[in-house]
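ok so I'm stuck.
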Amino acid sequence: MRPLTERETAVLRRTAGGETYRQIARDWGVEEITVRTTGARVLKKLGANTIAHAVHLAWEAGILRRERHGDHAGYNAHKYRGETPCDLCVAGERKYRAEQQRNRRKDAA
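replied:
not stuck anymore, here's the structure
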């Protein structure tokens, strides 16, 4: 099994979370064919027949772990493991920090 790139892992994670290639493409601001091509590379690297099969194989191989995504805790988990945080966790961390800043301003007023 060849290692997945960060982008391939992100596509795999997001499809495992129920998102379609179209939704991922829209969120990333790329063409759907770009995400489909990335998905095809995932299938080839994992030796899977479908994206569902790829998710299963990735889970068994430990590529996909049960972890929080899209929030402060998920962001910190990536950092703790020495990984670059995924797009979803970066967005969640931004939201968390903005909320903390709003609360500090509110408390100071």
